[in-house]
Amino acid sequence: MLSRPEHLHHFPTLTSIQAPRAAVAVGWMLGIGTLLAVLILLYVPWVQTSAGTGRVMAPNPADRVQAITALVQGRVEHWYVEDGQRVRAGDPIARLVDNDPFLLQRLAAEREQIEAEIAAAEQAVKVAESQVSQTREAAEKGFVTRRNFEAAQILVAERRARLAEAKAKLSRLEVTVNRQSAQLVRAPRDGRILHINAATGGTLVNAGDTLATLAPHAPARVVELMVDGRDVALIRPGQPVRLAFEGWPAVQFSGWPSVAHGMFDGRVRAVDPSAQQTGRFRVLVEQDPGKPAWPDAEFIPLGAKVRGFIQMETVSIGYELWRILNNFPLEFRAPNPGTT
């Protein structure tokens, strides 16, 4: 039997206690198991990620929320839509009328007058051209001088200039009439009316004033993530991204993406070369064509918040813990020269 150390002879009660063999065995098993678990975890692979938050947006400006503006000056006589109503491209939104109710009548009368001037000018040109022909024959026979023939040619030029001026006046008038007839504002594309500027109903609106705002239907979507500047130098187009959309239940394990739940796949589309005002860099993420599609726009509309994890290199957990404790950047491995 092993002898007790000399200093324990002063503690007879302690020396009399005998630890159960089962407890000793369990203690050794827990200690050895913990040591083995730590050693194993140090070599378990871990996928590094660059996390960021952002929102869903439309890369095409035509797919973003857009303002429907007045084409001409006037006031809104009638609304054809309400807030939240779905519309198709070409559906009427509002009808504008000019403040002068007799404007179109006066424009019609002015058009008749200009058309009469054009008819008179055309007749005058024909008469002047016939005079030129007669004067040429008379000059060849010696009945009139050469100067009379040149004066007739000058008269033809003056009559043609008056005819061209009258036609230009008619063109300008037609532009004005077309603008007044374009007072029916229509939807530029399929979508939903978000807001109507009801204040314009009884007030004067100018060309370009906003009448309503339209959210396009089923736009092409991308995700813009704001990532830390320390990681942006390591992000390249085509890298895989895992996304968690607002309102969509998801559980993410950044180091083990295969066990994540409720996440959607994407890939880096572009990285902004300059930082935003907040100091973070914007990364655009598009859908990965080889992965399941993102939820429909009805569930994930434009502007919805997103959490994203850009997948980087695969390292061991031990290295990752060492990197985090030392506040080092993510691992970077230069691509092979033969790869694209």
UniProtKB/TrEMBL annotation:
Keyword Membrane tagged: yes
Keywords per UniProt: Coiled coil, Membrane, Transmembrane, Transmembrane helix
Highest taxon above the source species: Bacteria
Transmembrane portions of the chain: 21-46
Coiled coil, from the record: 104-183
The keyword Oxidoreductase is annotated on this UniProt entry: no
Name of this protein: Multidrug resistance efflux pump-like protein
Source species of the chain: Methylobacterium oryzae CBMB20
